[in-house]
């Protein structure tokens, strides 16, 4: 019983440490390729890679901690921040999640995707999200 509690506390501590989403991105929007591969992005969206959680760990229908990313995402992302395209908004949402917090949600997104994914992988992930 106590061992499970200690393990849970350790996991939560690590998760919260990774959620300091106010850190500036280690890469910039201009560093990602102009186009990504949506098929590769779908794989990244569904699976954890390089120590990062899968997007589906939080962005699922009915989730209270993160908005559900579904069909029509590109249109919605294009209207989130004036002066930012859907692609640029999506980049910052991944690379600097504390930059734009969706109303009704907190600043708890994992913030090391830009350190653990390559610029190409981020472009692929964005291409997939925009294809929904």
Task: Explain the overall architecture.
The chain is globular and about 30 Å long. The chain contains six helices and no strands. It has 132 residues and is mainly α. The protein has one domain: Orthogonal Bundle (Cytochrome Bc1 Complex, Chain D, domain 2), CATH 1.10.760. The longest helix is centred in the N-terminal third of the chain and has 16 residues.
Summary of the model, kept short:
The protein is an all-alpha fold and 132 residues long. The chain is built from six helices and no strands.
Radius of gyration from CA coordinates: 15 Å
User: What is the CA-CA span between the terminal residues?
Assistant: 43 Å
Percent in strands: under 5%
- SSE string, helices as H and strands as E: HHHHHH
Shape, per Cα inertia axes: globular
User: Assembly type of the shown chains?
Assistant: single chain
**Uncertain stretches of 5 or more adjacent residues:** 5-21
Count up the domains.
1
Mean pLDDT: 85
The CATH architecture term is Orthogonal Bundle
Keywords:
132 residues; mainly alpha; Cytochrome Bc1 Complex, Chain D, domain 2; 6 helices; globular
Set out the fold topology:
Layout: H1 2-17, H2 38-46, H3 73-80, H4 86-95, H5 113-116, H6 119-131
């Amino acid at each position: 019983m106590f061992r499970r509690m200690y393990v849970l506390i350790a996991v939560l501590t690590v998760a919260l440490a990774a959620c300091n989403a106010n850190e500036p991105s280690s890469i910039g929007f201009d560093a990602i390729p102009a186009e990504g591969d949506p098929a590769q992005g779908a794989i990244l969206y569904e699976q954890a890679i390089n120590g990062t959680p899968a997007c589906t760990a939080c962005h699922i229908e009915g989730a209270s901690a993160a908005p559900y990313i579904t069909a029509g995402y590109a249109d919605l992302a294009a209207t989130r921040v004036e002066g930012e395209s859907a692609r640029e908004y999506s980049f910052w949402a991944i690379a600097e999640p504390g930059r734009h917090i969706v109303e009704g949600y907190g600043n708890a997104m994992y913030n090391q995707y830009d350190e653990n994914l390559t610029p190409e992988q981020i472009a692929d992930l964005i291409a997939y999200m925009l294809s929904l």
